[in-house]
Amino acid sequence: MNEDGPLTRLDMLRFARRVVEHQAARQLALMDRWIADEERRETERQRGLAARREAPAWTIERGLNGRSAVYVHAGGCAGAGGRVKGVGREQAVRALTDGGVPACPLCRPDTVLGILE
Predict the structure, then answer these.
(1) How many CA atoms lie within 13 A of 54 on its CB side?
(2) Which residues pair with 59 in a beta bridge?
(3) Contacts 24+ apart (CB under 8 A), 42-45
(4) Starting from the edge strand earliest in sequence, which strands make up the sheet with 84-87, in order?
(5) Mean per-residue pLDDT over the chain, rounded
(6) How far from 40 is each of 55, 104, 106, CA to CA, in Å?
(7) 6-60: pLDDT as tens digits
(8) Is the pLDDT of residue 86 over 60?
(9) Number of neighbouring beta carbons within 10 Å of residue 61
(10) What is d(CA 60, CA 81) in angstroms, rounded to the nearest whole number?
């Protein structure tokens, strides 16, 4: 800059360019941080989707005592409570036929399994 006299138009334009360059660098750094954060979130989301276990095809809902079976459900039934255990097809059929466990009235696993009451 010109320290001997007043600032010239050229001095002011060079100063304005440095200010804009500095602001642009800060904005780019901020945007790079946002991009990195979003990439990290997306990676975590994909990892969570991959780690999620597949819902069992059949579940047996237990009573409050944890021992007696209340209902047999088709997997993913909205009526199943929090005390469900995933079981295989044969175990679900056995519970419905031999075990005397009733079928859920919402998801009707007996119909899906081909068991008539």
Answers:
(1) 4
(2) 73, 86
(3) none
(4) 69-74, 58-62, 84-87
(5) 88
(6) 27, 42, 40
(7) 999 999 999 999 999 999 999 999 999 999 999 999 999 999 888 877 778 889 9
(8) yes
(9) 19
(10) 10
Contact 95, 87 (CB under 8 A): yes
Identify whether the C-beta of residue 74 lies closer than 8 Å to the C-beta of residue 104: yes
Mean pLDDT of all residues in 51-75: 85
Confidence of residue 84 (pLDDT cuts 50, 70, 90): confident
Backbone φ, ψ for residue 59 (5° rounding): -135, 155
Q: Helix (H, G, I), strand (E, B), or coil: what is residue 47?
A: helix
Q: What is the mean pLDDT of residues 63-72?
A: 85
- Give the alpha-carbon dihedral of 36, 39, 40, 44, to 10 degrees: 180
Distance CA 104, CA 26 (A): 60
Distance CA 65, CA 49 (A): 33
Coil/strand/helix, residue 72 = strand
How many helices (H) and strands (E) are present in the chain, helices listed first?
3, 3
